[in-house]
Write a structure and sequence with these properties.
Mean pLDDT: 90
Structural class: alpha+beta
CATH class of the largest domain: Alpha Beta
Number of domains: 2
Shape: elongated
GO molecular function: ATP binding
Organism: Pseudomonas lutea
Strand order of the largest sheet: 6-7-8-3-9-10
Distance between the termini: 43 Å
Keywords: ATP-binding, Nucleotide-binding, Transport
CATH architecture of the largest domain: 3-Layer(aba) Sandwich
Protein name: ABC transporter ATP-binding protein
Oligomer: single chain
Low-confidence stretches: none
InterPro entries: AAA+_ATPase (IPR003593), ABC_SmlMolc_Importer (IPR050093), ABC_transporter-like_ATP-bd (IPR003439), ABC_transporter-like_CS (IPR017871), Mo/tungstate-bd_C_term_dom (IPR008995), P-loop_NTPase (IPR027417), Transp-assoc_OB_typ2 (IPR013611)
Largest sheet: 6 strands, mixed
Amino acid sequence: MTGTTLRLIGCRKAFADGTVAVHDLNLTIEAGETLAILGPSGCGKTTTLRMIAGLEQPDVGQVWFGDQDVTRLPIERRDVGMVFQNYALFPNLSVEGNVVYGLKVRGMPAAERSRRCAELLELVGLQEHAKRGIHELSGGQRQRVALARALAPRPKVLLLDEPLAALDAQLRERLRSELDQLLRGLGITSVFVTHDQGEAMALGDRILVMQEGRIAQLGTPREIYQRPANAFVAGFVGNLNAFTVSGRTAGGLTVNGGELPWSQVDEPATVYCRPEHLRVVSGAGHVRGRLLGQFFQGAQSRLLIEVGAAQPLLVDSPDGTVHTPGDLIALSVAPQALFALHP
């Protein structure tokens, strides 16, 4: 199974009440790529997915699959597979009945349907459950049936709408890995919508962060996390520490709690870093503050440190040292971990 290049050119979608869900979206998804569309409720991510699927048509703009303009084609003529959040399985059909349903509608001969079903159930690890009813399956198994059904007709594009949202946290974590391996093995062009940043970081070759119907940032997970384009992206993807700058010294920037090693020419109003980039040290450090709390998280502890700012600092410390609330904590940070943001 091979993917196809997918393009949205100047796509805009407004609803009857005048609300613009998507503003002039230009986007290219490469053949075989997995793109995660990430953002809060109402940002336009589901509308974007529905325009790709053919469930919504853009008011302005075009949708292309490879060299074919599919803008006005309905979903059944676009050659897409779709997995919905609630899976939308047929409760009166068995596992194999669900998988072959679309193939039967397309007129595929029974013997070929049976071979294709067996192939897909082996792919998703459900070959021993073919005759079971949907009500007999766990949430994770139902998700796999929905995926097998979407892949059955060998679609050009696979679309997933919050595919793991209905699962508990432990199962969701495990299925992320399985889904990632499956998609990479198939090489199919995939687009999935999520509000879960961990899911987007784990599964997406690139992440499209949407804000109020527009692209806030498009990049690899590493780019999005380490060099966010603006404060919205930085705050939505991961946790963030903010230092208010009050002046400049020979060694860097004066901030709440101390001085940061900033060597760049500009003097921003606020400097940021991620919690894992602050390190507890025994010496003077760059900033100092008092411990408000320490929370054990297994491989690390999350420290909450008050440095005279509106928001306490978050520090992810792997050293295992137990501190007492009220302790004075010194922190250091590498210069390359600091960044400023556009408004």
